[in-house]
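User: Thanks for the earlier help. One more: Solute-binding protein family 3/N-terminal domain-containing protein. Can you show the sequence and predicted structure together?

Assistant: Of course, both are below.
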Amino acid sequence: MSYPLVVLFDFRYDMKNIGITQRFISLWFVAFALLGTLGNVAGAVPEELRICSDPGNLPFSNQQLQGFENKIADLIASEMGMRAAHYWWPAQRGMVRSFLNTGRCDVLIGVPTGYDRVTFTKPYYRTSYVIAYDQTRDFSIDSLDDDILKTLKIGVHVNTPPHGALARRGIMGNQVKAYPLFFDSQYSVEDYPGRVVEELLAKKIDVAIIWGPIAGYFVKKHAAPLAMIPLEGIENRIPFTFKISMGVRKRENELKAKLEAALQRKQPEIQQVLEDYGVPLLPLN
């Protein structure tokens, strides 16, 4: 998962109120495909660590294994003496109910810590929504309460914490361009998560307030001169920052413990992967 998409991660953290969907995984209505072979041959092939993955949700995962969750899955599987086998299913289409809980896969790489539909590991990174804007413009922004926001065109994913926060400040209507939170890479290519950043770079909007891992990835991809201001704290009982864990089926405590041990040992490498993808990281404690 990983959007509290937003999360961003369906990155929904309570999950109706926040719109952080377990996309911090992703969205497709397609038949699942299998990467890797089923079954082992007398020890010749390492045991599979079966990863529940969205097939088209960069920067988190895709079928070409280009996402940072794909890379982290490989690190953890290798540390456990296994190999990562990705089982594809769109996150917004009931990833936990239809895929994880039915035994088609065993591990979600990115879920908000505290997500009550799974047994979650200790968190392995923490990030937030961010305010992104062009540093070459003649304004600066430090928070959602800056008056300048009332004069600018703002892009935001619909039904996310920043979307609600803007509405509570009277910033709504034509001043706000709301982008779809859910993305189907087969049927709605134009709604890919990075579209809001690319429209910011094209000056179609003045500011983007979106999930940090999405902003950071597309900013880095385009080598863009954008400022990214993290949103921290809680507003109306809804947080802007989230700790991210791995998730397994309820009561799968043995697998959880093995994942936590591997996460602890591979934390430096995981940190490097996240930094390579431009994920804005906050202290875990």
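User: Great, one quick takeaway?

Assistant: The chain has eight helices and 14 strands.
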